[in-house]
């Protein structure tokens, strides 16, 4: 199968025959995805369709069959793939003593955050946060952030090392309608200004219709893929989501 | 030399007793250790895990007795490390809730330990393990504690960032190249070693309280990792020293006295955080 678009950049990521079997049960089977940089690829599907498992397989967290290859088309060389990841949720309780600086520096710095704040790291993180307009939150306790603020902080964390592929696992859950529109706008802008590909798992079909370049309908295997209009009007889409229509006219505008 | 220094610095009558000086030094070493370790045990929601690990000491001793190993400390240590790694392994399979898995293993290992040690009605010989006795510590053992503290500190400098990242989100940590399983296993072994090497003085029944309470209290009032570690170590040291002194004057068991003080600190910080913020 594989998504077919004009090559947009010099990099591409190919996932060939990805399969996952857990506890004797087939969760993913023969997944083939071809991703170009500069594209927003959205994976949709029902609960239990294997969306999160696919993400975990991509991250190398669970064993899978098949391969993921990242090539530079300029010289045809295979490179190692840097993945940025925004999880669905993080394990921060109401009183977890972790500031935004601690959260990000813990992942990106070797200086132990329990011992001291590194000035250099602090400046770097503030600059990164400013890209998502949340630099004022750097000393705030993570547990005090609103859903939208936390998403922006997690985006800053995921993109601080300039990944080739950004994976977002239902990042907008727990955000209100207004915040959601803002979030998709942010992702869209980021994509247009950076050399990377994005894979987004989402339930928000109207935003998917508006912003996605490619849609992948998943249910253990890939049922349908292609531009939103093609997928949303397909028989396969109807069999999963029923006959819902989404405004697809924006698609032509892009 | 250190003893003379203690005598000249501390204006208390108890300083003249060697066992009190040794206990005092031991507390200066053990409590910061527990304060540091506790922060990540609480972050990783491993309170139950460390509790089970403490209980496994009994089984470790029993296994040593059964196989005629002269130094039961060794069998205790080996058993606890294996026990910790096995628990981690099974936890990772996600077959059932973690607390259930831990409970099953913990109950089984305690039962085995008790059956072996209580054979012929001899259990009283081992009952000191349950409560512990800090006053019985020897200078050589204090030296071991120094090494342990240094080792833990180095481990913390190298791994605490990764440990904290894993506690926040495992997949996220894995995506950043952190070797999640390796670090988790190292941490479990680290807890196992420290718990086993200090259980003789602290006691199975209360060792977990000393691991959890200072960190839990520190969480009540800390906003970042630096405050968290600072307060956890401070509360741990404070409860240890004050507990030791009070237990000397009031003639109570030292371990439980320390736990009572640590608990009071927990409630104080809890109410402070509810009304202070």
Gap between N and C termini of chain B, in Å?
Answer: 47 Å
CATH class of the largest domain in chain A: Alpha Beta
Low-confidence stretches of chain B: none
Radius of gyration of chain A: 19 Å
Total domain units of chain B: 1
Proportion of residues in β-strands of chain B: under 5%
* CATH fold category name of the largest domain in chain A: Rossmann fold
Query: What's the number of extended β-strand segments of chain B?
Result: 0
Q: Give the helix level of chain B as a range of percent.
A: over 70%
Mean pLDDT of chain A: 83
Shape of chain A: globular
Number of domains of chain A: 2
Summary, kept brief:
Chain A has 254 residues and is of the alpha/beta class. Chain A has helices at residues 51-58, 100-108, 119-131, 147-159, 177-193, 205-211, 228-232, 235-241, 250-253; strands spanning 11-22, 25-36, 40-44, 65-72, 77-79, 83-86, 165-169, 197-201, 214-219, 221-226. Chain A folds into two domains: 1-82 and 163-254, 3-Layer(aba) Sandwich (Rossmann fold), CATH 3.40.50.300; 92-161, no CATH class.
Please describe what this structure looks like.
- The complex is a heterodimer of chains A (254) and B (277).
- Chain A has 254 residues and is of the alpha/beta class.
- Chain A folds into 2 domains: 1-82 and 163-254, Rossmann fold; 92-161, no CATH class.
- Chain A has 9 helices and 10 strands.
- Chain A has helices spanning 51-58, 100-108, 119-131, 147-159, 177-193, 205-211, 228-232, 235-241, 250-253, and strands at 11-22, 25-36, 40-44, 65-72, 77-79, 83-86, 165-169, 197-201, 214-219, 221-226.
- In chain A, the strands form 2 sheets. A 6-stranded mixed sheet of chain A has the order 6-7-8-3-9-10, sandwiched between helices.
- In chain A, α3 (119-131) packs across α4 (147-159).
- Chain B has 277 residues and is mainly alpha-helical.
- Chain B has one domain (2-276): ABC transporter involved in vitamin B12 uptake, BtuC (Orthogonal Bundle).
- Helices cover 80% and strands 0% of the residues of chain B.
- Chain B has helices at 2-9, 18-43, 47-66, 72-92, 98-117, 128-131, 139-168, 170-175, 180-202, 207-221, 225-250, 254-276.
- In chain B, α3 runs parallel beside α5.
- The model of chain B has no long low-confidence stretch (mean pLDDT 88).
- Chain A binds chain B through residues 55-56, 59-61, 83-85, 87, 89-92, 95-99, 101-103, 105-117, 139, 141, 157, 161, 167, and chain B through 39, 43, 156-157, 160-162, 164-165, 167-176, 180, 218-220, 222-229, 273.
């Amino acid at each position: 199968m594989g998504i077919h678009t004009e090559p947009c950049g010099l990099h591409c990521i190919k996932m060939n025959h990805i399969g996952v079997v857990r506890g004797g049960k087939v969760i993913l089977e023969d997944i083939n995805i071809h991703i170009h940089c500069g594209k927003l690829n959205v994976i949709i599907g029902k609960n239990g369709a294997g969306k999160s498992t696919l993400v975990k397989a991509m991250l190398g967290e669970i064993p899978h069959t098949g391969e993921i290859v990242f090539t530079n088309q300029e010289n045809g060389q295979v490179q190692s793939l840097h993945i940025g990841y925004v999880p669905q949720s993080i394990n921060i309780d109401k009183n977890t003593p972790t500031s935004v600086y601690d959260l990000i520096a813990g992942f990106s710095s070797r200086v132990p955050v329990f011992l001291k704040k590194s000035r250099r790291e602090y400046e770097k993180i503030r600059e990164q946060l400013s890209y998502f307009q949340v630099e004022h939150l750097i000393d705030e306790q993570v547990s005090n952030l609103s859903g939208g603020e936390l998403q922006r902080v997690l985006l800053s964390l995921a993109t601080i090392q300039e990944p080739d592929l950004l994976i977002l696992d239902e990042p907008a859950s727990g955000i209100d309608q207004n915040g959601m529109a803002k979030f998709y706008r942010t992702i869209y802008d980021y994509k247009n200004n950076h050399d990377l590909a994005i894979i987004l798992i989402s339930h928000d079909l109207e935003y998917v219709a508006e912003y996605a370049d490619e849609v992948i309908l998943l249910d253990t295997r890939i049922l349908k893929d292609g531009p939103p209009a093609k997928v949303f009007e397909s028989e396969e889409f109807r069999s999963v989501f029923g006959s819902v229509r989404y405004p697809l006219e924006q698609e032509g505008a892009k | 030399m250190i003893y003379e220094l203690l005598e000249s610095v501390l204006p208390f009558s108890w300083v003249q007793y060697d066992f009190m000086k040794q206990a005092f030094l031991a507390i200066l070493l053990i409590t910061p250790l527990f304060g540091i370790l506790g922060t990540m045990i609480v972050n990783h929601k491993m309170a139950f895990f460390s509790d089970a690990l403490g209980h496994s000491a009994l089984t470790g001793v029993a296994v040593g007795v059964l196989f005629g190993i002269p130094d039961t400390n060794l069998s205790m240590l080996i058993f606890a490390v294996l026990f910790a790694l096995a628990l981690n392994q099974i936890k990772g399979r996600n077959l059932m809730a973690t607390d259930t898995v831990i409970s099953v293993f913990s109950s089984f290992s305690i039962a085995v330990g008790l059956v072996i040690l209580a054979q012929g009605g001899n259990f009283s010989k081992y009952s000191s393990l349950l409560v512990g006795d800090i006053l019985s510590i020897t200078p050589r053992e204090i030296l071991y504690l120094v090494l342990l503290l240094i080792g833990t500190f180095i481990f913390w400098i190298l791994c605490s960032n990764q440990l904290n990242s894993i506690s926040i989100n495992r997949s996220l940590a894995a995506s950043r190249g952190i070797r999640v399983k390796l670090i988790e296993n190292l941490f479990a072994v680290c807890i196992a070693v420290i718990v086993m090497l200090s259980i003789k003085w602290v006691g199975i029944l209360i060792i977990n309280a000393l691991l959890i309470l200072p960190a839990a209290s520190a969480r009540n009032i800390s906003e970042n990792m630096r405050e968290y570690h600072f307060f956890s170590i401070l509360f741990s040291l404070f409860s240890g020293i004050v507990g030791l002194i009070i237990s000397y004057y009031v003639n109570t068991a030292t371990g439980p006295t320390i736990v009572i003080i640590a608990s009071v600190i927990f409630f104080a910080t809890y109410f402070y955080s509810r009304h202070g913020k």
